[in-house]
Amino acid sequence: MTSAPSYPVVSYWLDRFSEWLKQSRQLHELGQLDRGEYSRMAHELGLAPSDLERLVRRGVDGAEELPQMLRALGFDETAINRIAPPLLMEMRHACTGCGHKNDCHAHLAAKTAAAHYEEFCANANDSTLMRARQDRGTHTPLPSADSRSAGPVSLIG
After folding, report:
1. How is the chain split among helix, strand and coil, in percent rounded to 5?
2. Residue 86 CB partners (closer than 8 Å, separation 6+)
3. What does the DSSP assignment read for 85-130?
4. Alpha-carbon separation of residue 8 from 11, 12, 105 (angstroms)
C-alpha cells in the first residue's frame, strides 16, 4: 500500500486561502446588511459597529491565544465564563484586536507567558486583577450573574 506524498507548504497555503475565502464571505455578508441591522448585531455583541468589522477582518481565530494564556496564568476559562461571561467576551475582543500576537506566541511556546504577559498582553490589567484576587484567596473574583446560588468558585484551573 502506497501513501500519497505529503506537501506541507501546499497544505499550508491551501489552508490560508480557505481561511481568507471564509473571511471574505463573512465580510461580504456583513456588507449586505442594512445599517440598522448591522448596528443591532454589533450592539447585541456589546460592540460598536466599527469594532464588529475589525473583529471579522481579524478572522475567527483572532482570539485563539486567550485560552492558552488563561491556562498559562493558571485560570480556568470555563469558570470565568460561568462567573463573568461579559468579562470573558471583553477579553476575547481585546485579544482579537491585540497587536502583539508574535510576542504572545513566542512566550506561550517558551512557557514564559506568566512571567512576561504584562509587557505585551492586551488583557494584562484584567489578568493581573484576577491573579491578585486569587492570591488574596478570593474565590469569586467577579460577581456571578446569580451570586445568590453560585457560591464560591475558584478560577484556578
Report:
1. 70, 0, 30
2. 46
3. HHHHHHHHHHHHH-S-HHHHHHHHHHT-HHHHGGGT-TTHHHHHHH
4. 5, 6, 21
Sole residue written with cell 473574583:
141
Predicted confidence (pLDDT) per residue in 6-56, tens digit = 777 777 778 777 777 877 787 788 778 888 988 888 888 777 888 777 777
Q: Which three cell numbers stand for residue 24?
A: 471574505
Q: How far apart are CA 69 and CA 2, in angstroms?
A: 41
- Nearest-angstrom CA–CA distance, 119 and 81: 25
DSSP class per residue in 122-141: TTHHHHHHHHHHHHTT-S-S
Place of cell 442594512: 34
pLDDT in tens, 112-121: 999 999 999 9
Task: Judge whether 94 and 146 are in contact, CB under 8 Å.
Answer: no
Query: Residue 124 corresponds to which amino acid?
Result: A
Distance CA 59, CA 73 (A): 25
Q: How far is CA 7 from CA 4, 18, 140, in A?
A: 9, 16, 49
